[in-house]
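User: Can you predict the 3D structure for this chain?
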Amino acid sequence: MVIRRGEERDLIGIGRLLGQVLAVHHDGRPDLFKSDTKKYTDEELLAILCDDTKPVFVAVDADGNVVGYAFCVFKQHLNDNILTDIRTLYIDDLCVDESSRGKHIGRDLYEYVLEFARREGCYNLTLNVWECNQGAKRFYESCGLLPQKTGMEKIL
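Assistant: Here is the predicted structure, written as structure tokens:
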């Protein structure tokens, strides 16, 4: 398995995984999440893949198939009245293909993103997890993240 920045050739694989994430959220909160749709259009996804402020990382198997991804966003509140100027890497979405779970791909993706954040000079890594997604909560807690309001963080 290789972890690298996502590219245009990964659109189909990323799209498939986005569908799996949507299904989890729709099953947990059908009052909030639609079914049978995509979080991003192909055009939106292509724009994100080219945006260095929103790095996307993919885990690909030996055949080049996307088996996991992590969508990230740099956040910083410069010159804010109450917040310090720390630089944060926010994990907007992390998914491992349901057929590839249990192989430590999620942990490898998380560790890759964590090291990327350190290299980029971030103070912390944050994410949000839905209460209905208990498996994800347990996974993030096992990675050492701690509650921070409704999100979770790992101090780098």
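The helical segments are 11-28, 42-49, 105-119, 134-142. Strands lie at 2-5, 56-60, 66-76, 87-96, 124-128, 146-148, 151-155.
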